[in-house]
Specification:
Elements (H helix, E strand, L loop, with lengths): L1 H25 L8 E12 L1 H9 L3 E5 L3 E3 L2 E12 L4 E6 L2 E6 L2 E11 L5 E5 L2 E7 L2 E7 L2 E11 L1 H11 L10 E11 L10 E3 L3 H9 L2 E5 L4 E2 L5 E3 L7 E5 L1
Antiparallel strand pairs: 1-4, 1-12, 2-6, 3-4, 4-5, 5-7, 6-7, 7-8, 8-9, 9-11, 10-11, 11-12, 13-16, 14-17, 15-16
Length: 248
Amino acid sequence: MEMRGMGIRRVKTLGIVVGLFALLLAAPVAQASYDPISSGTTKLTLDKGFLASLKKVGVKVTAKASGKRQGSTLVLPVIGGKTDPTIAKAEIEQEGTIVFQAGNRKVPLRSIELKTKHTPLFAKVGGSQLKVASSKTTKVTRAGFATAFNATGLKLTQKVATRLNKKLRTKDFFFEGQMIGKIQSQAVPQRVTILPQGQGTITPAAPILAKFKSLFVSLNPINPAELSPDRTLNSLSRDSRMVKETLS
């Protein structure tokens, strides 16, 4: 009776293991959708001509509150947003503040966001969320599981130029279309949606396969799945059931 009980428990355990293979490979795949962003880094590289002009009129640009300046680049941590590289769309939220300062007068840009629009750079200036700059090109691509957001040829908008001149008392130094630089952002998603296409593969560990063999258990994939010569399980369909156990 004891041996029989052990055998039953062994079969149950084996059934659970094989069942896990089946679930992993046979579960329906979610439809494509926006993936939530959890972290990353955004870099705003300021145009050399823009920096030289700022220096002449006594205006400094710094990054505060989790942000930092490294040479001509303002670095901000990514804290949220959403992305779908399959349709080249993203909205990326940054932590930190960009500060324009002339003497004791300051204009902070808070709640900085990137969006795949002609005006990709947004920020809260004063009490309003404004379009900060337009771009020559805005592009979203995959970077492994991460999302790469790039915007080149950033030019200042009229509303922000007016706000800066008024608060910093720089007359008409800032103007619409003024070249300010480019943005590069690397955003890491919290989770990734897998499209219902292509092929999924699971390679069982050698000890597991050895255990199956010792118990006379074979892995027999159900069409259209297949078992390759190297004993990997390949799923060819999002709805296919993958594994059945044969006990003998």
